[in-house]
Amino acid sequence: MKILFISSEVAPFSKTGGLGDVAGALPAALASLGHDVKVVTPRYRDVRDARLTPTGQSLVVRFPSGEASGPILSTRLSENLEVLFLENEAFYGSRSGLYGDAWGEFGDNARRFAYLSVGALQAAQRLRFVPDIIHANDWQTGLVPVALQRGFRNTPLSRAKSVFTIHNLAYQGQFPKGVMDELGLPWDLFTSEGGLEFYDAVNFLKGGLVFSDALTTVSPTYAREIQAPEQGYGLDGLLRRRAHRLHGILNGIDAHEWDPQADPVLPARYGPRELEGKAVCKRDLLARFGLPDGDAPVFAIVSRLAWQKGMDLLLDVLPTALQADIRFVGIGSGEGPLEDGLRALQARHPKQMAVHIGFDAALSHLVEAGADFFLMPSRYEPCGLNQMYSLRYGTVPIVRATGGLVDTVEGGLDGTGVLFEAFHPAALLAAIRRALALYADPPRLEEFRRRGMEKDFSWSASARKYEAIYTDLMAE
Question: Hey, which of 83, 92, 270, 452 would disulfide with 391, CB 3.0 to 4.6 Å?
Answer without folding.
Answer: 452
